[in-house]
Please model this.
Amino acid sequence: MSVQFTRAVPWAADASVAPICEQAGDQYAARSNGTRTCCGGWQFVYTGLIPGHAYRIEWQVQHQGIGVADDELAAVIAWAEPAPDNVRFGTQMQWDYVFSTTVDAHTVRYAGVLVAPEGNDSLAIRNTLRWTAVGQMACAVPQVNDLGLAPMAAPVRVAVVTGKEAEARTQRPTVAAAVEFYASRTQQACDEGAKLVALPEVCLDWHVAGTLMEKALTVPGPATDRFADLARQYGATIVVGLHERVDREVFNTAAVIDADGTVAGTYHKVHLASFEAFSGVVPGDGFPVFDTAVGRIGCNICMDSSATESSRMVGLNGADFLVLPIMGDHRASVWQRGNPKLDEERWRSIMRVRAMDNQLCMVVARNNCTASCIIDRSGEFLAYNDGSADFVIADVPLGADFRKWNGGCFRQVNWRQRRPHIYGAFTAVNPAARARLAGS
Model:
């Protein structure tokens, strides 16, 4: 049985907020009722869906008089047929957002591939006009095409390689010794099936004698070649921390070596630690995400973690994994003068929130071993090193469909609720705040 479009009906929570809906030929139009409480539109109903099949859903919306299209136009898929006045699906049905892209000043395109859940054979597409006292939209019947049985995404086996707590702190005489220390343990993790391996911050020259400028390495180069060989041998993606020399500049770098042994990309630490900012190390200027054999990988390094924007940018750039090589987090240490002492409860809270807020898997490699961890998108710790293990390993369900209690996909909700056009102050320099800091 193929997918069948059965009917289109106007929908709104109640008559007081309903837009004015009209059909003309193959176009289904809605215009504002003159108030910003306007919220509703057309509901398109389809039957004949097969649970477990993937469906490509797409259509275009023409609009006039709309201010911010991503705010005032929206689309929701309900995997059943809700009553036209039902806007609180509760636990009755699963639902999804469909995201839009701008075609031109008066056109947006909605498109997505979604998998029909168990237990029903119908869906309803809600094309929505909202939050505007003016303006109108119109569209034809959305297209729903069966792509066949959805493939099951295999979990990715992830390892964080650090060495044990006591060993990790050991002085190493040369970069070659550091390479051997981490490469031997990386090989052990790969022998256990790891396909993504994360190493700590600047681990290839950490505890090696010499200045940062003297120790800086090239990428690719002799120090990373050992890991490139392991990547090729095991078909694994390996993220290596080091100080990198690029011409006359030195960066704190995470080098992402893909499963074929090539360098998929290098991330340069954007937010330098206080001492580091005055050491001659140059900060990076972006948060790239790299396509690899295991998925899309973005990185933060140490101090980046305490700037909210760092992990958010990696999430916005579409990462599956955020690899975080890190010495420690000043928020998770004692809040007083003296030698830092790790507060593991604070540490867990910080890393868990980063994973949930940005809907990616956190892969955290701490130089001193203890508290290195792997956390899935739901905030669950899949692996945690208490200091006694050379590495921790876990299978990460990359294709997991984490849903809220009310049937919505948490990742979709997390991104769709955003209203970036009102976040200007978040990225601007605030003179009043700086004046307060100067007096603190």
The mean pLDDT is 94. The chain has two domains: 4-151, 156-398.
